[in-house]
Design brief:
CATH topology of the largest domain: Rossmann fold
Strand order of the largest sheet: 6-7-8-3-9-10
Structural class: alpha/beta
CATH architecture of the largest domain: 3-Layer(aba) Sandwich
CATH class of the largest domain: Alpha Beta
Number of domains: 2
Order of helices and strands: EEEHEEEHHHHEHEHEEH
Shape: globular
Largest sheet: 6 strands, mixed
CATH superfamily of the largest domain: P-loop containing nucleotide triphosphate hydrolases
Distance between the termini: 8 Å
Strand content: 15-25%
Radius of gyration: 19 Å
Length: 268
Amino acid sequence: MTSPVLAEPDGRSARPVYELANVCKYYGERGVVALEGVDLTLREGEFHSVIGSSGCGKSTLLKIMAGLTPPSKGRVMLAGKPVLGARPDIGMMFQQATLFPWRTTVQNILLPVEVREGRAAAEAARARAYGLLELVGLKGFENTYPSQLSGGMAQRAAICRMLIAEPNVLLLDEPFSALDEITRDFMNMELQRVCLERNASAFLVTHSISEAVILSDVVHVMSARPGRVVRSIRIDLPRPRTLDMVVLPTFGAHVSEIRHLLDTGALP
């Protein structure tokens, strides 16, 4: 099996946050191979994306990283400790905001703290929740119910809920795929801003090549099942990224390289 190609970052010495070594996942009595030999390292402050055809194992990989399902083989380490189940230092965001309609915005944000540590701890975290709401441009909507929020506003609230426990890493499963293109572009720029301001490490599952390139320091391209990372491409665009960068030759070259890999079945 050909090893993924990844150029070393220039002058980067950030500590590893996630380390995956030979991660495999098998399903059923027939031994269906969903993932095979996945190796990757996510460093502090980096934003990585994984892209591949439907059914290649992207979401399975994310679930393994989140501790929601164990690997059949291999090792997953986060901050030097094995991931053996759900952990408070892992923040996860899904395609839908999934806010509880009977709770206000701030109550939804505080829910993870309340579930894990109780109401007193949630109340103590209220000031932090207000700070996050201001960070994502939702100041003044603290006591608003989800039915009164637009799709983009609800997803921004979901970002706050993910961040309230101050996780070491953010795992993102196509969080803006249900939004219209204009709102999705805006939310991607908001996500980048939040990550930069907090020096957050993030890992995104996406089907959008342009989204992966505009957001990521590294894009991992996966083969069709069995899912393998066949190429890891470092995106050499300056930060902060802007939507104007989509017209740059470097952006176009990265998009073309990833498109070619996907069109040829992501062969090594």
